[in-house]
């Protein structure tokens, strides 16, 4: 009869690989940098429009009249 608690039946893994390997860490950092840069690129026009709305408008420019 199969007994899952019997040590002879257990799958012995002599070299368990850790969950956080360098490959996963580098991949996660690249994904996070990509996500942050996408969000900054997406929301930066909204932020700059808000900042520009707070500033007074520039004075009008007098253009020379074209007389023929």
Q: Which tags fit this structure?
A:
single chain, 68 residues, mainly alpha, 1 helix, 49% helix
* Unreliable residue stretches: none
Tally the helices: 1
Order of helices and strands: H
Record field, number of beta strands: 0
Please identify the structural class as seen in this structure.
mainly alpha
- N- to C-terminal distance: 108 Å
Task: Specify the overall morphology.
Answer: rod-shaped
Helix content: 40-55%
Q: Which value, in Å, is the CA radius of gyration? A: 31 Å
Largest sheet: none
Approximately what portion of the residues adopt beta-strand conformation? Answer: under 5%
Mean pLDDT: 79
Q: What would you say this structure looks like, in words?
A:
The chain is built from 1 helix and no strands. The model has no long low-confidence stretch (mean pLDDT 79). It has a domain at 20-51. The longest helix has 33 residues, at 22-54. The N and C termini lie far apart (108 Å). It is rod-shaped, with a radius of gyration of 31 Å. It has 68 residues and is an all-alpha fold. The relative contact order is 0.05.
Quick synopsis:
The protein is 49% helix and 0% strand. It has 68 residues and is mainly α.
Summarize the helices and strands and which ones pair or pack.
Elements: H1 22-54
């Amino acid at each position: 009869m199969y007994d899952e608690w019997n040590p002879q039946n257990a799958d012995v893994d002599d070299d368990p690989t850790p969950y956080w390997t360098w490959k996963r860490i580098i991949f996660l950092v690249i994904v996070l940098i990509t996500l942050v840069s996408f969000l900054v690129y997406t929301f930066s026009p909204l932020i700059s429009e808000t900042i520009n709305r707070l500033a007074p408008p520039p004075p009008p420019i007098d253009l020379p009249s074209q007389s023929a």
